[in-house]
Fold these 2 entries.
Entry 1:
Amino acid sequence: GGAAGAAAGDEYASALPLWPISMAQRSAQQLLLSRTTLVLPPADYAALLAAVLRGPDAWQSGANLTAPLIRGIKVLRMGMLQSGPLTPTLQSLNLEEYAGWGFNGTDLTLVPSQPLPACQPLPDW
């Protein structure tokens, strides 16, 4: 099975925690990820999903509750190969390009560490 419908768990062959990149050093791009799945805390995943749902020209606008997270992102571009429709209940998000918080990425897949409840409202959306 694919990671698209699964939360983090035994399905991933390896893991690399990104927390060693300190907040003070995150202004300079330090890491380049390509074709990588990132398992995020549910709140961070929900914030990024809400940003993508706001659209390619408006993902930064309307970020009130999530402003501290969104402010550190310079590029957030949705992937063209997104499987399925883009909805607030999406459990896997493909990004064509990302830049911010100390790393750049291309062809990234984001998944929450635990599935988002279907009834959970997304912040700032």
Entry 2:
Amino acid sequence: RDVPLASRGEGEPRLAVQSGKESADMRGKWPSIAILGSCEVAGMALWFSASAVVPSISAETPMTAFQESLFTTCVIVGFILGTFVSALFSLPDRLDMRQFFSAGAAVGGFANALILVFPPASVPMYSMRFITGMCCAAI
């Protein structure tokens, strides 16, 4: 069947023919797109999950406003550096994206879980947040 896909903006709309086979192929891809989208949301939750608990951590252990802001800033700086390194070495082009994505999510999740091991407002805890940010660049 013919499906209008685009118009030129002036005059008659342009029709692109899309065969029934191509439509069936796209329908088969929707589950993969849904899984990828879900994984993306779950992976990027690393960014926000620990930041959401800063008020609880502050209630348990006194932290200054600077220390609280550093908790989130370390992720942002890690993401920027991770994105820069990834682009500098063309990692998304050189590596299998499934493995790159999976490794980033796994290492990021592990680093995010390790913040429970270290005392709040300690250098190792901030380092784990930085590593989490670097891994978010792979997601």
